[in-house]
Design brief:
Elements lengths: L1 H17 L4 H26 L12 H9 L4 H6 L5 H11 L7 H16 L8 H14 L1 H8 L11 H32 L8 H4 L4 E7 L9 E12 L2 E12 L5 E3 H8 L6
Antiparallel strand pairs: 1-2, 2-3, 3-4
Helix pairs in contact: 1-2, 2-5, 2-6, 2-7, 2-8, 5-6, 6-7
Length: 272
């Protein structure tokens, strides 16, 4: 269980590191990716044949027999050298045809891993190359890693910093489209209702809320878009916990936006 928790944490850190624009973090992500792939490959190979889990070049005949029969003690098994990353790649490509097309990519990642961990020379590859190698290898082994970590494969979505920026831009454009449509609906509804006011200042203020500022509404263009701040108190054995937040509500047309959405509409937030 400790190993499972550790490996899930490694996966989380790995996916974050590979999205970075810092080459040191990307290198960490590549090393973590190689580690996770090797773990997943070993786990899968041992299920196919227990002998594939070990480095057979160093196995004695009696060890092989013990492995096949399952008669080795835990202490004996721990003393045996397990297969290295490159061996695991060769084994899995031989055992499962679908991995053959990814063989060169997987080997490249493990060579990168070895260069980072064992060489004292400076890195000779750029950030993009390292990230691409690691994310491609992770995608190829996604299902194996998912099974090994007992983790939803849909949540294993490795991205480079370039891919992540592109995804953020797509999300930003979609959210802006939705907000634009929401604002337009309120504008049309306001015009249909003959500019009838829907809220008053009293509706927005209470003992726990107040109007901090007023802006021009992006829907009806009136100076009625109120920034409403709220404070809440909760009690626990450690004392009073205070929480606060702000939202924006138009007293004329009823348009309501969160602080983040207000930032998007006014241009102060850009796909963050």
């Amino acid at each position: 269980m400790k190993r499972l928790i550790y490996n899930r944490n490694v996966l989380k850190e790995c996916l974050e590191n590979l999205k970075s624009t810092d080459i040191l973090e990307v290198c960490d992500g590549a090393v973590q990716a190689a580690y996770l792939i090797e773990q997943a490959l070993k786990s899968h190979l041992r299920k196919i044949n227990p002998l594939l889990y070990y480095d057979r070049r160093n196995l004695k005949e009696e060890d092989e027999v013990g492995i096949v029969l399952g008669s080795l003690t835990e202490e004996q098994a721990r003393k045996l050298k397990t297969a290295g990353g490159r061996q695991c790649i060769l084994y899995i490509c031989a055992a499962k045809n679908e991995f053959a097309e990814h063989k060169s990519n997987l080997i490249e990642l493990f060579e990168l891993r070895n260069e980072v961990l064992h060489s004292i020379e400076d890195f000779n590859k750029d950030l993009g190359t390292i990230a691409e190698s690691a994310t491609s290898a992770l995608k190829a082994c996604k299902n194996l890693i998912s099974d090994f970590l007992e983790f939803d494969s849909e949540k294993i979505n490795p991205l480079t910093s370039k891919e992540f920026s592109k995804l953020l831009l797509q999300r930003y454009k979609l959210r802006m489209q939705q907000l634009t449509e929401q604002v337009e609906r309120h504008r049309q509804d306001y015009l249909k209702k003959n500019n009838k006011q829907v809220l008053t200042k009293a509706d927005l203020e209470s003992e726990m809320s107040w109007i901090e500022d007023v802006y021009e509404c992006p829907a009806c263009a009136n100076n009625s878009f109120s920034k409403v701040c709220e404070v809440d108190f909760d009690w626990n054995p450690d004392g009073i916990i205070t929480s606060s937040g702000c939202s924006y509500i138009c007293t004329e047309c009823g348009l309501s936006l969160s602080e983040y959405e207000f930032g998007l509409v006014t241009g102060s937030n850009f796909y963050t």
